Amino acid sequence: QVLLVESGGGLVQAGGSLRLSCAASGINFSLYGMGWYRQASGNERESVASITRFGSPIYAESVAGRFTISRDNAKKMVYLQMNSLKPEDSAVYYCTCIGTSFWGQGTQVTVSS
């Protein structure tokens, strides 16, 4: 069975950085694009970044230039390096296999002003 586990969230001041990790199991990881979504309280879940099975990244306009998505197929891990964080980045961040309904439990990111 598929299991995705996010970690690395926390409380950080505006301008700070966090690195999120997502550990995957139960899938042929190298065959899937992976993505990070976020959902702020009262808002809909939105795509933040994705990375193809070949390692090509795509970013939402709101985070482009600040966030970097990467993957390590050998470790079945996907990462989201978040720099220059803003209060509007505060949300629960979720890891997903692109094109599936597989999600992790989420990790909370809170950015204070």
Task: Give a verbal description of the structure.
By secondary structure, this protein is mainly beta. The chain has strands at residues 3-7, 10-13, 18-25, 34-39, 46-51, 57-59, 67-72, 77-82, 91-97, 107-112. The strands form 2 sheets. The chain has a 6-stranded mixed β-sheet with strand order 2-10-9-4-5-6, with no helix packed on it. Strands 1-3-8-7 form a 4-stranded antiparallel β-sheet, with no helix packed on it. It is globular, with a radius of gyration of 13 Å. The model has no long low-confidence stretch (mean pLDDT 97).
Spell the H/E element sequence.
EEEEEEEEEE
Number of strands: 10
Distance between the termini: 40 Å
Molecular shape: globular
What are the defining features of this structure?
113 residues, mainly beta, 10 strands, globular
What is the fold's blueprint, element by element?
Elements: E1 3-7, E2 10-13, E3 18-25, E4 34-39, E5 46-51, E6 57-59, E7 67-72, E8 77-82, E9 91-97, E10 107-112
Parallel strand pairs: 2-10
Antiparallel strand pairs: 1-3, 3-8, 4-5, 4-9, 5-6, 7-8, 9-10
